[in-house]
Amino acid sequence: xxxxxMTKASARGVALLLAGSLALAACASDEEPExxxxxxxxxxxxxxxxGLAYDVGGRGDQSFNDSAYAGVEAAVExxxxxxxxxxxxxxxxxxVEGLANLAQEGFDPVIAVGFAYGESIAEVAEEFPDTxxxxxxxxxxxxxxxxxxxxxxxxxxxxxxxxxxAALKSETDHIGFVGGVEMPLIQKFEAGYVAGAKAVNPDIxxxxxxxxxxGDFSGFGDPARGQILARSxxxxxxxxxxxxxxxxxxxxxxxxxxxxxxxIGVDSDQYQTVDDPELQAxxxxxxxxxxxxxVEGFITDYSEGNVQGGVDITNDLASxxxxxxxxxxxxDDIQAQIEEYRQQIIDGEIEVPTTP
Length: 356
Known about the structure:
Layout: H1 11-17, E1 24-27, E2 49-53, H2 64-79, E3 82-86, H3 95-104, E4 110-113, H4 118-127, E5 133-136, E6 148-153, H5 155-169, E7 174-181, H6 184-200, E8 205-212, H7 223-235, E9 240-244, H8 249-259, E10 262-267, H9 270-273, H10 277-282, E11 283-289, H11 291-303, E12 312-315, E13 322-324, H12 335-346
Parallel strand pairs: 2-3, 2-4, 4-5, 5-6, 6-12, 7-8, 7-9, 9-10, 10-11
Antiparallel strand pairs: 1-3, 11-13
């Protein structure tokens, strides 16, 4: 039996917790912590107990979820403590229960990875007002819940640089974009990418496809479909395809390898995270969405008692919250142009669109 503080839940919350058992995989340090922090944070480092609820696909996607875990891992390594993980089932119907269980078991803060937790986290945060929550990719400003922080990103800015890089490196003046789910968040990636490419070459052709429609999150975990869509782009003459498709991005890399073309990764430095040398070779760059930095920073703020709930924190080019990876050296020759675009965005000379 762990010695963690149990937060108070309403009768409804308790009933929710008894609805069923979950597979929660714990990754604990040798030292057992005793208690979590208050709503505003401030837990002693050795008492840090982090709950991490993953997006679709869980840890091992070599992208979004893995980046979040890397941030938690870095914070725990620096501050001490432990982390307990939760992965939702395929349809996400157990998200509320998963978050509630983490809070009930005394983990604090609890971090939800992905916009799909938007409604769930508001419900659970009200049931556990003494627990500090954060959510990646979902605004909390309108929720009216004071113990949740939104960790947002200017994906369109980083994607603009990816589009500029693609246009500068393309030999066919024809590139592509594969999105996981056709929804506003992923359309930010598309909008920025197309704008960046057009800034370099107004006449460039940019093919756009989505793996699944809005509301169907399977598009983030369907590499076979990602491969088919990217292959059709390559066969039509595109020589670089950028994906914002989570675990489906592996299929885009496979299509690039099959056709002798190149691809652009997303979220993590995917040149470093893929475990297949053939796929690594085709990754020209990756649009870095520093979920790891945002999560680590939030946990550090929590440990120091500096979390301000009920607000959104946007990570952009100016804060190095987004950017382009240089691993592999394939964009070394265009760094001067990329840096010029980056500075123009930071200075407000270029306003990047957030919708296609």
